[in-house]
């Protein structure tokens, strides 16, 4: 069925010969539109383009592969309609080599083709991040060591300012962070050199022209404007009939002072105005006619204004402007030295990589940039060649591009030629990779400048969401209309940027399906009564229980929630796989959530991106490696001693230490081993140290991954981990350690010491692998994942949880803040007098980072909420330091706010996602029940934008969550007691008891056949029938020397089965007419050895006299006669179909069993058959009946097979015994 495109989508697909920016909202089908645009471009009737003339840049390799797959499928669909179209066939063949790729793969393509122009060794490889982590660490230590030797004053001042007495780590981290920031700029050295001059300010006027002051000025003006509106709102409340009129003059005075500050211009003016700011005391007059709630509202407004103004004064006007100038000047030489260190590191790191002939991803970008862009910023000759190669450049997820990528792709476009040909698609509201130095500003610059009309620089907006129900869309719009703005979020969320419903869900036959967005607020400080004292649950556990309770309600087997399945085009009961729990971070949360859900009987899984190094099994094995490298490390040594590998108890460890308190623990253990007495503890220690010495010897020549395998095997720890709780996951983690060791061995580093060092560095710098994934895509369980990982995905039911988790603001409080545009923001540190204070540069960058980080967090929240297709459920906990009532009281002024958009300063004060959710809900009718707790009305009549938007909002406490569990536990214990104390004689209903017994005592009717396979050999049947009987030895005797142990020499011993096979092989290949000649038999055996049919060892154990004895029997004469008539057959294979009941009288089933076997020999005689079977079993004369008994069944199957195959009767069955040298007739 053809896709029905919207008018805007059709425009995107059909527009040509322009720069086109597509602002595609969540769920708007941007990938489908992009693929269709490519398909149309390569298959349109006029001027089609070969697919290898397009450069399609995606964000990940997975996205590139998916896009290729989609395009390939679309081309194949068109070929079905038009199979003779040669152009489509050509596109399909070109697709594999089409430039549908990531930016790094494109850079690699450029370097592979033009390496000779920059003197690059073409055999370079892309280094693994683990190898680069070690290399950077080595290089930076060498750089610092070099400068320590030079003893420069500026360097020593830098060290004193930014290191500790114990380590240079803080300075190393600063250098690496600055280096990383520089790499996101097209010309890193230029950016670094530009960070010195801003500190060269001589006057206050110079300072006021800096970018730092502009940032502060912009923030203050925004905030003052908000505060002015708040004061005006307070004045209006004072003027109401029951308003607090006694506060009116105070607020008017505040407004006058605020207006005076707003009129100020320049740093000195602001400094003076803020330091002269004084607030009058609120009137203490009482008036019984004044509404108490209005009085509290006005007081809250004024307190918030005072608090905000005081904070601005404290943050930015804590010292006179001239002192700010002096601080920056004092820092200039130190900052200059810091930049010199970064440049030095950059050069030494480049040399180290060049020496190893490796590149990292930054190198790919910058080397490609050097090839494509001239120093003046113009495209190079190579770029011009590529401009001719590509007719259009298409960029997916454009909001996540950075300056380097932008410069690269601009250089190979035809924009410089006046022929714009770049297609960009993305959604700045979903730009959530600022931490990777993405620049959503690039998207917004084009968004604000490109025309929505037909033009060479054209913008098309896709607003319709085809993913979610209107209830989800309306909830998202309701919140973000209030929260997201140009200042916070980088987008003015309004009618032109909001989501619009485009999904077509069939109407459900069930009228009670509720798609209302639910909000659950856990108020942990609310008074709790009648809750058992022994309930000890953390906030995270209680929130997890809340989620589990709601999932159980959704999954109720008697009345399950229904979701619409587009594949089957109907509603079906919800499954666990339809549910996802989204978290801002899984660290510290996912394990708690997963454990609680599993306890509640809900299958759950989290594919974490962290926590690998914290797992018990990895900690123990890494400790083993560390003591192999150096046993004099107390923590790893104690870890191994206490672990299941050795199993010493804490009491035993304490006893050892107390006995030798003056010694290091390793020496104490050595002393224990030297003691003359032996006990269980000493033996365990002794055995381990013997093994430790073996490993220490092996490490000199054994690869790390083989050493790990040996540790797993010798200690049995791998198997032990497998039987622990979560054993499969633990073994997968240990397997991953093997993989990491193998990767390490492919790097330029070698040896156990470097591997341990690498793993320590990865843990230190939080380069975590995450626990190994053991989850299949289609498993029916609840997923727990980060919001970042969910981007691009969709789920019927989405829980967005842990909303009360505070925002991570660690990067704002570093000793040096870094910003791509504002540069460096250091503290001024006087190390001689041992004090420090922030510079105005740092304060400006801190505020810029705070606003940018909050903007990013708001976009992350938008991504989370737009993952839901049918049901959105929000959960969060109020911090234990406060209560919901206090939070609502603090924000109560929001209820009187008349504009849809919330004040800038209010949005900026949020400490977590839950704050924003509550900000947005304060004016919604559904929040009235919450506001009643603080005797507040939300003035619903002032807000028309609440129409048709519904929320279910509920505040809960611990009692609400756990009391149901307590009741259920009591009921379970009651039932358990009844069952434990149940007496058989108490049975009242015999009929029910008979039915129960029938069920419990039922036996499978075919239990005797459970070991019967569909296909069996005659030998297997024979063995089954002989079970319990002794094995009959072979007649081939063994020399006494043949019983030497295997470790002394290769054994010449043959098992009875091997001997039987050997004799059958001889009888098969030796001609019958030579069996009466010893010499010819010998020659025949030699020939069989030469041809590889038998080995020398086998040849030497053949007893030739037994073969000669066979040649004297009557049987051989009959066989020779049959041979002359071509009626002799050897080693005849067969497959016979029999009912299972025919195989054994105890079998009841009539299922068909295929029986296969090999008949040694048979011959035709007088139109009937004679069956011959050779046996080597050792039998004494007179015991022929043993063989007859043993092989009657086997030869019976042979007879059935022959008669069925040949349609002739078997008249005789003969066993020839090489032990008795005679025929035995059956």
Automatic annotation (TrEMBL):
Pfam families according to UniProt: PDDEXK_1 (PF12705), UvrD-helicase (PF00580), UvrD_C (PF13361)
PROSITE patterns named in the record: UVRD_HELICASE_ATP_BIND, UVRD_HELICASE_CTER
Listed CDD domains: DEXQc_UvrD
Keywords assigned: ATP-binding, Coiled coil, DNA damage, DNA repair, DNA-binding, Exonuclease, Helicase, Hydrolase, Isomerase, Nuclease, Nucleotide-binding
GO terms under biological process: double-strand break repair via homologous recombination
EC number: 3.1.-.-, 5.6.2.4
Cofactor(s), by name: Mg(2+)
Any one GO molecular-function label of the UniProt entry: 3'-5' exonuclease activity
Keyword Ribonucleoprotein: no
Gene Ontology CC terms, in alphabetical order: cytosol; DNA helicase complex
InterPro entries assigned to the protein according to its UniProt record, in alphabetical order: AddA, DNA_helicase_UvrD-like_C, DNA_helicase_UvrD/REP, P-loop_NTPase, PDDEXK-like_dom_sf, PDDEXK_AddAB-type, Restrct_endonuc-II-like, UvrD-like_ATP-bd
Reactions the enzyme catalyzes: ATP + H2O = ADP + phosphate + H(+); Couples ATP hydrolysis with the unwinding of duplex DNA by translocating in the 3'-5' direction
Keyword field contains ATP-binding: yes
Annotated ATP binding sites: 24-31
Positions of the UvrD-like helicase C-terminal domain: 497-792
Span of domain UvrD-like helicase ATP-binding: 3-469
Domain of life per record: Bacteria
Coiled-coil annotated spans: 295-355
Family, similarity comment: Belongs to the helicase family. AddA subfamily.
Function description: The heterodimer acts as both an ATP-dependent DNA helicase and an ATP-dependent, dual-direction single-stranded exonuclease. Recognizes the chi site generating a DNA molecule suitable for the initiation of homologous recombination. The AddA nuclease domain is required for chi fragment generation; this subunit has the helicase and 3' -> 5' nuclease activities.
Assembly and binders: Heterodimer of AddA and AddB/RexB.
Protein name as annotated: ATP-dependent helicase/nuclease subunit A
Organism classification: Bacteria, Bacillati, Bacillota, Clostridia, Lachnospirales
Gene that specifies this protein: addA
């Amino acid at each position: 069925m053809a896709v029905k495109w919207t008018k805007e989508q059709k425009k995107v697909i059909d527009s040509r010969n322009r720069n086109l920016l597509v602002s595609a909202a969540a769920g708007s089908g941007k990938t489908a539109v992009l693929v269709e645009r490519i398909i149309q471009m390569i298959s349109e009737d006029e001027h089609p383009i070969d697919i290898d003339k397009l450069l399609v840049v995606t964000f990940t390799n997975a996205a590139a592969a998916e896009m290729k797959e989609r395009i390939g499928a679309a081309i194949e669909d068109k070929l079905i309609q038009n199979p003779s179209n040669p152009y489509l066939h050509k596109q399909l063949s070109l697709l594999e080599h089409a430039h549908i790729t990531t930016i790094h793969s494109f850079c690699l393509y450029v370097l592979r083709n033009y390496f000779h122009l920059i003197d690059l060794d073409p055999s370079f490889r892309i280094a693994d991040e683990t190898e680069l982590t070690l290399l950077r660490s080595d290089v930076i230590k060498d750089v610092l060591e070099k400068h320590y030797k030079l003893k420069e004053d500026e360097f020593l001042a830098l060290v004193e300012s930014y290191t500790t007495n114990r380590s240079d780590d803080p300075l190393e981290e600063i250098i690496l962070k600055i280096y990383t920031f520089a790499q996101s700029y097209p010309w890193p050295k230029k950016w670094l050199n530009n960070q010195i001059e801003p500190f060269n300010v001589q006057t206050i006027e110079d300072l006021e022209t800096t970018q730092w002051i502009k940032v502060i000025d912009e923030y203050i003006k925004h905030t003052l404007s908000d505060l002015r509106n708040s004061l005006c709102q307070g004045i209006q409340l004072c003027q109401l009939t029951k308003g607090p009129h006694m506060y009116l003059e105070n607020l008017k005075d505040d407004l006058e002072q605020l207006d005076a500050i707003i009129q100020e211009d320049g740093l000195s003016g602001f400094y003076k105005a803020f330091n002269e700011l004084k607030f009058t005391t609120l009137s203490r007059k009482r008036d019984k006619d004044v509404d108490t709630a209005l009085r509290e509202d006005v007081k809250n407004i004024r307190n918030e204004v005072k608090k905000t103004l005081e904070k601005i004064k404290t943050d930015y006007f804590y010292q006179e402007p001239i002192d700010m100038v002096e601080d920056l000047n004092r820092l200039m030489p130190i900052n200059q030295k810091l930049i010199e260190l970064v440049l030095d590191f950059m050069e030494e790191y480049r040399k180290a990589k060049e020496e190893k002939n490796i590149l990292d991803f930054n190198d790919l970008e910058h080397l490609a940039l050097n090839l494509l862009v001239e120093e003046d910023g113009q495209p190079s000759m190579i770029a011009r060649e590529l401009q001719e190669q590509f007719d259009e450049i298409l960029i997916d997820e454009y909001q996540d591009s950075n300056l380097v990528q932008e410069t690269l792709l601009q250089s190979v476009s035809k924009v410089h030629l006046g022929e714009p040909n770049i297609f960009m698609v993305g959604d700045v509201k979903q730009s959530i990779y600022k931490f990777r130095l993405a620049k959503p500003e690039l998207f917004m610059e084009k968004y604000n400048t490109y025309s929505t009309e037909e033009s060479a620089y054209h913008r098309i907006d896709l607003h319709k969401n085809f993913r979610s129900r209107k209830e989800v869309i309306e909830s998202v719009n309701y919140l973000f209309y209030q929260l997201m703005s140009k200042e916070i979020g980088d987008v003015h969320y309004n009618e032109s940027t909001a989501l619009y419903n485009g999904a077509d869900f069939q109407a459900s036959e069930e009228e009670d399906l509720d798609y209302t967005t639910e909000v659950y607020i856990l108020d942990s400080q609310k008074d709790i009564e009648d809750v058992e004292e022994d309930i000890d649950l953390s906030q995270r556990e209680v929130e997890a229980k809340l989620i589990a309770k709601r999932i159980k309600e959704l999954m109720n087997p008697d009345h399950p929630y229904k979701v619409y399945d587009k594949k089957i085009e109907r509603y079906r009961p919800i499954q666990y796989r339809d549910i996802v729990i989204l978290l801002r971070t899984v660290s510290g949360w996912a394990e708690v959530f997963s454990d609680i859900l599993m306890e509640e009987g809900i299958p759950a899984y989290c594919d974490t991106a962290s926590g690998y190094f914290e797992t018990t099994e990895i900690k123990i094995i890494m400790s083993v490696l560390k003591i192999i490298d150096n046993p004099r490390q107390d923590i790893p040594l104690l870890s191994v001693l206490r672990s299941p590998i050795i199993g010493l108890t804490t009491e035993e460890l304490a006893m050892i230490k107390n006995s030798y308190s003056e010694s290091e623990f390793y020496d104490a253990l050595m002393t224990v081993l030297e003691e003359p007495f032996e006990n269980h503890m000493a033996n365990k220690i002794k055995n381990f140290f013997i093994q430790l010495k073996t490993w220490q010897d092996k490490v000199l020549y054994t690869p790390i991954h083989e050493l790990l395998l040996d540790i797993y095997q010798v200690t049995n720890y791998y198997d032990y981990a497998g039987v622990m709780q979560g054993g499969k996951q633990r073994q997968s983690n240990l397997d991953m350690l093997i993989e990491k060791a193998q990767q390490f061995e492919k790097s330029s580093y070698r040896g156990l010491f470097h591997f341990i060092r690498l793993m320590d560095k990865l843990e230190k710098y939080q380069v975590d692998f995450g626990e190994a994934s053991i989850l299949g895509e289609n498993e029916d369980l609840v997923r727990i994942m980060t919001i970042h990982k969910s981007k691009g995905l969709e789920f019927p039911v989405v829980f967005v949880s842990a909303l009360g988790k505070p925002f991570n603001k660690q990067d704002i409080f570093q000793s040096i803040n870094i910003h791509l545009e504002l540069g460096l923001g250091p503290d001024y540190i006087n190390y001689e007098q041992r004090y420090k204070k922030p510079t105005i540069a740092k304060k400006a960058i801190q505020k810029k980072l705070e606003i940018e980080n909050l903007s990013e967090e708001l976009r992350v929240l938008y991504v989370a909420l737009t993952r839901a297709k049918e049901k959105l459920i929000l959960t969060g906990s109020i911090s234990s330091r406060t209560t919901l009532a206090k939070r609502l009281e603090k924000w109560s002024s929001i209820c009187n706010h008349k504009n849809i958009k919330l004040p800038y300063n209010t949005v900026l004060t949020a400490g977590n996602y839950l704050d924003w959710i509550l900000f947005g809900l304060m004016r919604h009718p559904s929040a009235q029940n919450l506001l009643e707790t603080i005797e507040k009305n939300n003035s619903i009549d002032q807000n028309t934008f609440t129409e048709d938007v519904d929320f279910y909002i509920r505040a809960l406490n611990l009692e609400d969550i756990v009391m149901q569990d307590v009741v259920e536990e009591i009921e379970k214990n009651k039932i358990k007691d009844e069952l434990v104390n149940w007496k058989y004689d108490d049975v009242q209903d015999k009929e029910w008891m008979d039915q129960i017994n029938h069920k419990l005592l039922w036996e499978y009717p075919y239990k005797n056949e459970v070991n019967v396979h569909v296909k069996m050999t005659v030998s297997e049947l024979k063995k089954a029938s002989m079970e319990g009987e002794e094995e009959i030895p072979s007649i081939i005797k063994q020399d006494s020397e043949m019983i030497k142990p295997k470790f002394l020499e290769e054994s010449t011993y043959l098992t009875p089965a091997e001997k039987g096979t050997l004799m059958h092989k001889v009888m098969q290949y030796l001609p019958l007419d030579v069996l009466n000649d010893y010499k010819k038999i010998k020659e025949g055996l030699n020939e069989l050895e030469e041809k590889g049919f038998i080995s020398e060892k086998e040849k030497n154990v053949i007893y030739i006299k037994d073969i000669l004895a066979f040649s004297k029997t009557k049987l051989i004469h009959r066989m020779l006669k049959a041979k002359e008539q071509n009626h002799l057959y050897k080693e005849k294979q067969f497959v016979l179909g029999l009912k299972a009941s025919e195989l054994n009288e105890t079998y009841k089933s009539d299922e068909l069993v295929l029986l296969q076997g090999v008949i040694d020999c048979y011959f035709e005689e007088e139109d009937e058959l004679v069956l011959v079977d050779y046996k080597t079993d050792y039998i004494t004369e007179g015991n022929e009946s043993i063989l007859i008994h043993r092989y009657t069944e086997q030869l019976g199957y042979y007879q059935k097979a022959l008669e069925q195959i040949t349609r002739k009767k078997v008249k005789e069955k003969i066993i020839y015994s090489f032990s008795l040298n005679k025929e035995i007739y059956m």
